[in-house]
């Protein structure tokens, strides 16, 4: 009887040992894997996350430009042109007219292309014969200027919508004399420099604007600091040298696009 009990106990121990061994073998044959945890906020997608802006400030500036800015403007101008130096005694101030087209790079900087023309009465007195000549001079110009608009966000509320600006650039100026008593006419041209400032007032919910602009044009024509004028058959001596430049004051009405 005792022998049967010992044999049964030994069988149970052997069976338990085989079960443990098989379980350990099964665990050794099972491969373990590590699952990576993905944070949606840190995931990068080269297609959905692409942005042409390096900083948030650049993106805000572009959004502000598309919402409140202008792409280009076109305007008709009219005003007066005057002269400095001895030109003020020889040429009379007179009306001038023009057209302007501006392209905006951003809210502050724009490039302006303009054409301006006007006729002026002239009066010359010669040295040798003491003869006075009268006639007309036509002055036209093509101007390439950069306009920088000043920031008015921090001024009084009533003035915040105004658009003051300064401008500077180059111009090609053409001049044509028509003098009574002299055969033919004289035509010449010269490069010049533009310096000025202006102000634009929005109209029609910023679809249009009314502007005023003053500019000084530094021009050196061929007869600068000389006491003669070219005529159809030669030159006529004057009683004084021709010196000076000219300036313009314009009112501009334009449309924004």
Automatic annotation (TrEMBL):
Question: Which InterPro entries does the record match to this protein?
Answer: Beta-barrel_OMP, OMP/PagP_B-barrel
The Outer membrane protein beta-barrel domain sits at: 74-223
Pfam family, any one: OMP_b-brl
Q: Which domain of life is it from?
A: Bacteria
Question: What are the boundaries of the signal sequence?
Answer: 1-26
User: Carries keyword tRNA processing?
Assistant: no
Could you list this entry's UniProt keywords, alphabetically sorted. Signal
Q: What is this protein called?
A: Porin family protein
What organism does the record attribute this protein to? Answer: Bdellovibrio reynosensis
């Amino acid at each position: 009887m005792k022998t049967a009990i010992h044999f049964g106990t030994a069988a149970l121990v052997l069976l338990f040992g085989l079960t443990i061994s098989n379980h350990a073998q099964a665990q050794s044959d099972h491969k373990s894997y590590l699952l990576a945890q993905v944070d949606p906020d840190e995931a990068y997608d080269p297609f959905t996350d692409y942005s042409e802006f390096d900083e948030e400030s650049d993106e805000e500036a572009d959004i502000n430009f598309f919402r409140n800015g202008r792409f280009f403007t076109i305007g008709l101008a009219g005003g007066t042109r005057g002269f400095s130096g001895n030109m003020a005694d020889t040429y009379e101030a007179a009306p001038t007219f023009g057209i302007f087209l501006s392209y905006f790079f951003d809210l502050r900087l724009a490039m302006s292309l303009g054409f301006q023309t006007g006729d002026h009465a002239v009066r010359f007195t010669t040295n040798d014969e003491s003869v006075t000549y009268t006639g007309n001079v036509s002055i036209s110009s093509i101007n390439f200027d950069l306009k920088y608009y000043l920031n008015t966000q921090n001024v009084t509320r009533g003035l915040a919508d105004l658009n003051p600006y300064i401008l500077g650039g180059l111009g090609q100026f053409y001049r044509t004399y028509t003098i009574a008593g002299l055969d033919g006419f004289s035509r010449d041209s010269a490069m010049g420099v533009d310096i000025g400032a202006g102000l634009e007032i929005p109209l029609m919910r910023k679809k249009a604007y009314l502007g005023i602009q003053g500019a000084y044009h530094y021009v050196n024509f061929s007869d600068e600091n000389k006491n003669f004028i070219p005529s159809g058959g030669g030159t006529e001596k004057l009683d004084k040298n021709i010196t000076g430049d000219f300036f313009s004051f314009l009112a501009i009405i334009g449309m924004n696009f």
